[in-house]
Amino acid sequence: MITKIYRVKGTFVMGDEFHKFVKEYKATCEADVEQKIYERFGSKHGITRNQIKISEISEIAPEEVLDPIVKEIL
């Protein structure tokens, strides 16, 4: 399988506030990226899937990566 790099944008609820996020992940498809978002935000912030709203998932080129950890993996 070919792995691609995706940038995910969205919001999540923390207390009474909405917080924006932009994350980059290496994955084989958009569905895998979506699952990673739900798992990691749920684990880190103790929130449920309905408290996370993904507004955009887009494939990006390796040159466009901003996340230093993803850059290191490449």
Structure characterization notes:
The chain has a single domain, classed as Ubiquitin-like (UB roll). It is elongated and about 35 Å long. A hairpin with a 2-residue loop joins strand 1 (4-14) and strand 2. Helix content is 30%, strand content 42%. It is an alpha+beta fold and 74 residues long. A 3-stranded antiparallel β-sheet has the order 2-1-3, covered by helices on one side. It is built from 2 helices and 3 strands, in the order ββαβα. The chain has helices at residues 30-45, 68-73, and strands spanning 4-14, 17-27, 52-60.
Core attributes:
74 residues, Ubiquitin-like (UB roll), three-stranded antiparallel beta sheet, 2 helices, 3 strands, elongated
**Remind me, CATH topology?**
Ubiquitin-like (UB roll)
CATH-scheme architecture? Roll
- How many β-strand runs? 3
Q: Helix count?
A: 2
GO molecular function, one term: large ribosomal subunit rRNA binding
Domain Large ribosomal subunit protein eL20: 4-58
Family: Belongs to the eukaryotic ribosomal protein eL20 family.
Protein name: Large ribosomal subunit protein eL20
Summarize the structure.
This is Large ribosomal subunit protein eL20. The protein starts with a strand and ends with a helix.
Strand-helix topology:
Blueprint: E1 4-14, E2 17-27, H1 30-45, E3 52-60, H2 68-73
Antiparallel strand pairs: 1-2, 1-3
